[in-house]
């Protein structure tokens, strides 16, 4: 994945009032941290940052006063109503460094007729190279019968990724829809009671 460059400004004002002023200017307060250095407080361009963070595990090149710094977003705080970004925590990374990220589980294919699938793990935690972070992983359920399970250790990970999630964790479970047979049984069980109450 290609890195996305964002021009940042050093931030000297702090507090809720300063953060509100930054957001009114269509910018986002953020902090860069990691590798033992002091946290660096910056302001990022609002629109460009929103677009960049639509991607999962995107590698950012944060340009502060002409000096580029590779980073990944570790925490993105959003307004619950407007879904706008309120603040971003950025972890400083280096080329060749391994970091821990969560990647989305995408289900592909169809299980056997008459079955449904339940996704027990929406994401998997992996260790990967910071400059080659995977976004997602595909898990095929094509033709699987009821009772089939796919565990984390069964999932083929992108090259260079190491699984950190419990290998025995169930990612997808194939089963039969609940309630169909039970509803018929319940209906037949209720019929005698209903008949006696009517008599």
From TrEMBL:
<dbReference type="InterPro" id="IPR011035">
    <property type="entry name" value="Ribosomal_bL25/Gln-tRNA_synth"/>
</dbReference>
<dbReference type="InterPro" id="IPR020056">
    <property type="entry name" value="Rbsml_bL25/Gln-tRNA_synth_N"/>
</dbReference>
<dbReference type="InterPro" id="IPR037121">
    <property type="entry name" value="Ribosomal_bL25_C"/>
</dbReference>
<keyword id="KW-0699">rRNA-binding</keyword>
<feature type="domain" description="Large ribosomal subunit protein bL25 beta">
    <location>
        <begin position="98"/>
        <end position="178"/>
    </location>
</feature>
<keyword id="KW-0694">RNA-binding</keyword>
<dbReference type="Pfam" id="PF01386">
    <property type="entry name" value="Ribosomal_L25p"/>
</dbReference>
<keyword id="KW-0689">Ribosomal protein</keyword>
<dbReference type="Pfam" id="PF14693">
    <property type="entry name" value="Ribosomal_TL5_C"/>
</dbReference>
<dbReference type="InterPro" id="IPR020930">
    <property type="entry name" value="Ribosomal_uL5_bac-type"/>
</dbReference>
<dbReference type="InterPro" id="IPR001021">
    <property type="entry name" value="Ribosomal_bL25_long"/>
</dbReference>
<comment type="function">
    <text>This is one of the proteins that binds to the 5S RNA in the ribosome where it forms part of the central protuberance.</text>
</comment>
<protein>
    <recommendedName>
        <fullName>Large ribosomal subunit protein bL25</fullName>
    </recommendedName>
</protein>
<dbReference type="GO" id="GO:0005840">
    <property type="term" value="C:ribosome"/>
</dbReference>
<feature type="compositionally biased region" description="Low complexity">
    <location>
        <begin position="188"/>
        <end position="199"/>
    </location>
</feature>
<feature type="region of interest" description="Disordered">
    <location>
        <begin position="176"/>
        <end position="199"/>
    </location>
</feature>
<dbReference type="InterPro" id="IPR029751">
    <property type="entry name" value="Ribosomal_L25_dom"/>
</dbReference>
<feature type="domain" description="Large ribosomal subunit protein bL25 L25">
    <location>
        <begin position="6"/>
        <end position="90"/>
    </location>
</feature>
<comment type="subunit">
    <text>Part of the 50S ribosomal subunit; part of the 5S rRNA/L5/L18/L25 subcomplex. Contacts the 5S rRNA. Binds to the 5S rRNA independently of L5 and L18.</text>
</comment>
<dbReference type="InterPro" id="IPR020057">
    <property type="entry name" value="Ribosomal_bL25_b-dom"/>
</dbReference>
<comment type="similarity">
    <text>Belongs to the bacterial ribosomal protein bL25 family. CTC subfamily.</text>
</comment>
<keyword id="KW-0687">Ribonucleoprotein</keyword>
């Amino acid at each position: 994945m290609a890195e996305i460059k964002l021009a940042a400004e050093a931030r000297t004002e702090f507090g809720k009032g300063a953060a509100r002023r930054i957001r009114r200017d269509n910018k986002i307060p953020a902090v860069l941290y990691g590798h033992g250095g002091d946290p660096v407080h910056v302001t990022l361009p609002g629109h460009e940052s929103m677009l960049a963070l639509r991607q999962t595990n995107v590698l950012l090149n944060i340009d502060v006063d002409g000096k580029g710094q590779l980073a990944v977003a570790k925490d993105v705080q959003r307004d619950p109503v407007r879904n706008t970004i309120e603040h971003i925590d950025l972890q400083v990374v280096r080329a060749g460094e391994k970091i821990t990220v969560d990647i989305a589980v995408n289900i592909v294919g169809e299980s056997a007729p008459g079955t449904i699938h339940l996704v027990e793990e929406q994401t998997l935690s992996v260790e990967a190279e910071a400059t080659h972070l995977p976004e997602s992983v595909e898990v095929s359920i094509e033709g699987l019968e009821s009772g089939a399970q796919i565990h984390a250790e069964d999932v083929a990970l992108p090259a260079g990724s190491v699984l950190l999630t419990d290998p025995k964790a169930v990612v997808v479970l194939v089963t039969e829809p609940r309630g169909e047979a039970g509803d018929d049984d319940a209906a037949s069980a209720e019929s005698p009671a209903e008949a006696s109450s009517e008599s």
